[in-house]
Design a protein that fits this description.
Keywords: Membrane, Transmembrane, Transmembrane helix. This protein has about 120 residues and is mainly alpha-helical. It folds into two domains: about 40 residues, no CATH class; about 60 residues, no CATH class. The protein has five helices and two strands. Strand 1 and strand 2 form a beta hairpin. The mean pLDDT is about 90.
C-alpha cells in the first residue's frame, strides 16, 4: 500500500471516530481567526471530588467533637434524646448527630484545649 493511501485511511478513521463521538452530542465554538469548529461534547465529570467528601466528613466529626467537648457528654445525650422525640426531620438529625467513637475521641482531645 502506498504512503498516500495509508494517510487517507488514517484520516478516514479519525473522521469516523469523530462522527461516532458526535453521535452523543456536539458543540460549536468560534476560534480566534473566525473559523467555526464543531466537536463532540465532553463528558461532564462530577463536581464533587472524593477529597471534598473526606474533608466535609472530617469537618463534621470535628464539629461533633467540639459540641461534645463544650456541652459535655451528658448534656449532649440529653439534647439528642429531645431530638429523637421530635418530628421525622429531628429524628433524622438525631441519627446523624449520634455519638460515635471517632467524635468521642475528638472531644477528649479538644476538651483540655477548651478548658
Amino acid at each position: 500500500m502506498s504512503e498516500e493511501h495509508q494517510q487517507f485511511l488514517s484520516r478516514v478513521s479519525r473522521l469516523e471516530n469523530k462522527h461516532e463521538a458526535m453521535h452523543n452530542g456536539y458543540s460549536a465554538r468560534i476560534r480566534s481567526d473566525g473559523l467555526i469548529v464543531v466537536g463532540p461534547k465532553r463528558k461532564i465529570e462530577s463536581r464533587i471530588s472524593p477529597r471534598s467528601v473526606v474533608l466535609f466528613l472530617a469537618a463534621f466529626i470535628l464539629f461533633k467533637g467540639f459540641l461534645i467537648a463544650s456541652i459535655g457528654l451528658d448534656g449532649y445525650q440529653g439534647r439528642l434524646s429531645k431530638l429523637q422525640a421530635g418530628s421525622v426531620f429531628e429524628q433524622g438529625g438525631a441519627w446523624i448527630m449520634f455519638v460515635d467513637p471517632l467524635s468521642l475521641w475528638t472531644a477528649t482531645q479538644i476538651g483540655p484545649i477548651l478548658r
